[in-house]
Design goal:
Number of strands: 0
Order of helices and strands: HHHHHHHHHH
Distance between the termini: 45 Å
Shape: globular
Strand content: under 5%
Structural class: mainly alpha
Length: 211
């Protein structure tokens, strides 16, 4: 941020304040019930100011999710040891994703509206495009590690790396969504330790990749 002009820094800080306020309102109200008026009040800006930064509520939602994805990506980068084999790095990625879910439940919940909001948004939305590009980057990173695991012999050689990455992330996300919705009541009913059950479930998913 040091190389930016003062005006650019102020603009960036204002945008960050709006995104943080929007995140809180979306969590409290849900996407549909939230309004730009409420977000403007939460951010302590006028609604006109919001529209100087974001085209509409959908655009603002994509900015909120992008912020969350960047935080998730930082968790994954911190969890992975580049000196390890491909399978171990994929395992570390999955554990890092689960740790993010446990430590940032509210941020994880904001992701759940994405499919619905994406259908409503304009095709030319800049924030929608930025989010899609970052999401693609994360998938490519996972697929790249799977490629490396196939090369070093720690991951099954016949796998389609892209499809394996998509499947793994979808299964993990679906599992954590279910855990968020019913995990405590489910595990209590079946006398399961939630952490042990989660670790076991992740191990089952990973077993499909291991050579």
């Amino acid at each position: 941020m040091e190389n930016r002009t003062r005006r650019d820094r102020e603009k960036l800080l204002r945008e960050e304040e709006i995104v943080s306020a929007a995140e809180k309102v979306f969590l409290e109200k849900g996407f549909e019930a939230a309004s730009m008026d409420e977000i403007a009040r939460a951010a302590q800006f006028t609604k006109r100011t919001l529209y100087q930064y974001f085209e509409n509520k959908e655009d603002l939602y994509f900015a909120v999710v992008l912020k969350g994805f960047k935080k998730l990506f930082a968790y994954l980068a911190q969890a992975v040891d580049d000196k390890q084999c491909g399978f171990t790095r994929i395992e570390q990625t999955c554990r890092g994703y689960y740790r993010f879910f446990k430590e940032n439940p509210d941020t994880f919940r904001t992701f759940s509206y994405w499919g619905h909001v994406k259908k409503k948004a304009d095709a030319g939305s800049k924030k929608k495009y930025e989010l899609a590009e970052f999401n693609n980057l994360m998938f490519k990173s996972v697929a790249g590690v799977i490629d490396e695991g196939k090369a070093d012999g720690s991951i099954k050689p016949g796998l389609d790396s892209d499809k394996a990455a998509f499947s793994l992330v979808f299964m993990l996300t679906g599992f954590m969504n279910q855990l968020s919705a019913t995990g405590e009541s489910f595990t209590k009913h079946f006398l399961l330790d939630i952490e042990d059950f989660s670790a076991y479930s992740i191990d089952l998913m990973l077993e499909t990749l291991k050579r």
